[in-house]
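Progress report, Aim 2. The chain analyzed during this reporting quarter is listed below.
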Amino acid sequence: MGSGGGPDGPEGEGGWRLSGSLEEFLAVAGAYLRSRPALHTVALTVSDALERRGLDLYGDEPPRFGWCAEAGEVSAVLLWTPPFVPMVAGGDEAAARGLARVLAGGEGPAPGGVGAPVEQARAFAGEWARATGQATRRTFRKRLYRLGTLRRPALPPGRPRSAGEGDRATLERWHDGFAADVGATVGLGAGAWVDAGLARGGIRLWEDGGRPVAMAVATQPVAGSVRVTTVYTPPALRGRGYAGAVTADLSARVTAGGEQAVLFTDLTNPTSNGLYRRLGYEPLAEFEEYTFEEGRAEAAAP
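Predicted structure tokens for the chain:
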């Protein structure tokens, strides 16, 4: 990226500064992210993973970072790990539009989309369309939940257990099944994803009749928060209560360790939203993701 707020460059439009340095990003914006760990769960876990495992974790193209400061206080951040779309955390619509103009006017690869809280995502997408002439298309609507008081469901047959190396083939297959269900890449390839999950002991299974029938996964704890993710039951085994049972078990383990549990749902999936509410998860915020495409520019979808 070049003009106005390029990596290690001057402050850009609307107070934005961009950097290629994770160390600088965390030094400047880390406290802001940790101040609201549930709301900033993705930025925290991704930056933590990059710090622990290297900047090439998600691909060969270097990550990009940014922050918007008002009166010396960070109010929004950018975390972009190609090939995934940039994530914007915090800020308001004006900040989102300013960032869109900075990225549209800079050098280097252009983002293929954006993910952010609803109003910021729409503001960014609309400004990007105006600045570039590209069309914008909403691809995801997500809701972030935080666990209040866990309400355990009636349990199906079986028991929970931690996944081990002997489960690798099943886990890799389920990783791909989950990705197909949600229509998105799940961060890492199946093998690397299993390696990371087993290494941190973050994959819980529900086992019935001696075989795994469902899984739920916990991220690495960061700033007192853990995200429950990749809850999956093979299609032939759904509707039996396995997903609720393994999610409740994992959630209880998270809170027993003193962490708060959060998770995302697809707003177009009433089954998962209903399940997590019954378990005691409470809505916290909504997010949208947009893809940018060549063609007639349109305003962000309502």
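Confidence is low (pLDDT under 50) at residues 1-10, 297-302. The domain at 149-279 is CATH 3.40.630.30 (Aminopeptidase). These observations will guide the mutagenesis work planned for the next reporting period.
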